[in-house]
Design a protein that fits this description.
It contains five helices and 17 strands. By secondary structure, it is an alpha+beta fold. The chain has a domain of about 170 residues. α2 runs antiparallel to α3. The chain binds zinc ion (2 copies).
């Protein structure tokens, strides 16, 4: 099924015509619970990874004394999805209850010191994602992260890998995976994607000062929140990237280590549409989805939850060889 974002209930360019020249395309990925294969674009799905290429690991220190078992998290999610179509007041069976209990946090005696195999976060084929940046000859982008976010420097360990799908003749299966992870919220549940290109505009604190001041005054007068209409929520590729807190006056774009202004590549968003849907980002196909009853909720089927933060991955426009720039940003969407 495709996903179709309806027209914004309020066109910000009708109020502020100068925004028209700042319009950027962004591809909303619309992840939905499913069973993707290595041949599919996915979130949390299996990666088309060559058998003879080492699987990436994180070797930073992980000072944690409480973890969850990945296999238990996966089993628990499986049951939750199956229960999705059953009456909401139907109590879990004793067997289901046992699986849910097993997925809870467990104390460990010492910090987790082994190298940690990274988890697949996303795999994007250029054929599926309009506007996907790719080096010459590549047609597949793969993103992985460390399932422990609590590093010394607070920065998540993210690996970005481009490749040419045709060059993968033998696939690594099954890939290594960590026995335990920090939180179940850091395990992206398998989702298929329904990419859709839409338009977005800079967040209020990315605007040139004069326009930004007028937008803030308009917000005061009308009670509207500009970002809700200008910035696409959820998991996406490209666009303007930064959705910083309203409290910050300005948001300078992050820079690569080489000095170049980095470009937004991939955003791990919060929910796929604003809670009260003021910006009207809920796809028409999901109009009847009942967010309260569904598990996973209709608007956040990856089950990834980074608190109130988005994770943004930027790439250097000078070279695909330069490491990605990673930002965790408090989001007001
Ligand atoms: Zn790590
Ligand atoms: Zn660079």
């Amino acid at each position: 099924m495709t996903r179709t974002t309806p027209p914004r209930p309020l066109d910000v360019t009708a109020v502020f015509p100068e925004l028209a020249m700042m319009a950027r395309s962004v591809t909303r990925l619309h992840p939905r619970s499913g069973s993707p294969t290595v041949e599919d674009s996915s979130v949390g799905g299996p990666l088309l990874w060559p058998q003879d290429e080492p699987w990436p690991t994180c070797t930073r220190s992980h000072e944690l004394y409480e973890v969850v078992e990945l296999e238990a998290v996966r089993a628990s999610h499986h049951i939750s999805v199956a229960r999705w179509s059953r009456p909401e007041d139907e109590p879990p069976t004793p067997e289901e209850r046992a699986v849910f209990d097993r997925s809870g946090p467990k104390k460990i005696d010492s910090p987790y010191t082994d190298p940690v195999p990274l988890l697949p976060v996303a795999q994007l084929y250029a054929r599926d994602v309009p506007g996907l940046p790719c080096p010459d000859g590549a047609d597949l982008l793969q993103i992985l992260w460390c399932p422990f976010m609590d590093h010394d420097d607070d920065i998540p360990a993210v690996r970005v890998r481009w490749r040419c799908a045709d060059q993968v003749t033998a696939v690594l299966s099954p890939p290594p995976e960590p026995a335990v992870i920090e939180l179940e919220d850091y395990w992206p549940a398998p989702c298929v994607l329904h990419p859709e290109q839409v338009t977005e505009y800079p967040a209020v604190n990315q605007l040139p000062a004069a326009v930004g001041a007028r937008v803030r005054a308009w917000q005061e007068d009308t009670g509207h929140r500009y970002n809700e209409f200008a910035v696409a929520p959820g998991w996406k590729v490209g666009g303007w990237g930064v959705v910083p807190s309203d409290e910050r006056d300005s948001a300078d774009p992050p820079r690569c280590g080489c000095g170049a202004v980095a470009e937004p590549l991939f955003t791990v968003g919060l929910a796929e549409w604003n809670g009260h849907n003021a910006g009207g980002w809920r796809p028409v196909e999901d109009a009847d989805a009942d967010d309260r009853r569904c598990y996973p909720p209709a608007g956040s089927q990856t089950t990834v939850d980074l608190g109130d933060e988005e994770l943004q991955i930027y790439r250097c426009p000078e070279s695909y060889e330069h490491p990605p720039v990673i930002a965790r940003v408090y989001s007001t969407l």
